[in-house]
């Protein structure tokens, strides 16, 4: 991506950054979704059976459906209540995950016991019961909690023994039926563990993505997401952009706290949009100012050109913001932007419990100093000769730009004075 073709940016959203909190929130959300799915499946299945029973009684005129119809009607009503109130209450939705051992298996057992009592083929009903319990055990695994399979399996095995005894099945069946149900539960216990692992992995990735979004444009964040964290620390060449609101202290004296916060949020929102649009990295907010840089952690051969075009875009964006402020009867904002290019150390710096991805070095200090000099030179942007050199290395003709030399300045910590330039968009006075 070239500096003349900035990437799209999206509005910054408030996100959960702590991995533990994000994992917890993701697991809760996943379990609620699973519980809602289980309630929907229960209602769908019972509705299907209800239709079959209606057809059997009214269509086939089979009296065998009459005895179990009341039990099925109660089951369908409970399924409907769980589905409806689960949609309205997270508490009911959360407790509905226990419905398999407390509602499904007991009601199915009652229906099957009734069938066996009035059925000429109790063996078939008993085998059918095992199939139903296997299905319910599988459905219970969707709760995303492996331990929920324990009560489901215990209740299911006990109920299956009752049904088999009522059907007078052999001792072998009394052993193999519950054993098959137990093996099904053991096999299905892998599913919630695997689903939880996937949710945790996705939450960690999202946490990392949210962390990256603090500093990088969406495009840059996507590029480095699958790489190691860009925090080991490295020395590299960067173009530093230092921006500050002029006269902010006197301006804020006439504002209350909420107005100051709103002003800064509006200002930073506009400025950071431009930084991210040109692929820059946001280092930090500095009260009424901000620090950003280009060419790290993702290399950019035209980093100096990006930085200058970004600064010009920030000035133009400020004009839009000031037009809005003028409409609201508010005074305009003025900014100064300093740009310098050179070597710096980039990495996660700070205490173990609180670190910042930042850049340190003389290059940052010079950019800060140039920003303060913009007021003396009555301009919005000042850039050093080092920036100009690197721009010409990327694009010798500097299309669309004009540079006006404005002399040089002594910068603390540097032996030689820094030659200064004021950039402008070509054709703009």
CATH topology-level name of the largest domain: Alpha-Beta Plaits
Q: Which regions are unreliable across 5 or more consecutive residues at pLDDT < 50? A: 1-14
- Counting DSSP E segments of at least 2 residues, the number of strands comes to 8
Overall outline: elongated
- N- to C-terminal distance: 28 Å
Radius of gyration from CA coordinates: 34 Å
Supply the helix-strand structural class: alpha+beta
Output the CATH class name of the largest domain.
Alpha Beta
Number of domain modules = 2
CATH architecture label name of the largest domain: 2-Layer Sandwich
User: For the record, what is the CATH homologous superfamily label of the largest domain?
Assistant: Nucleotide cyclase, GGDEF domain
Query: Please, how many helices?
Result: 14
Beta-strand residue percentage: 15-25%
* Mean pLDDT across all amino acids: 85
Oligomer: single chain
- How much helix is in the residues? 55-70%
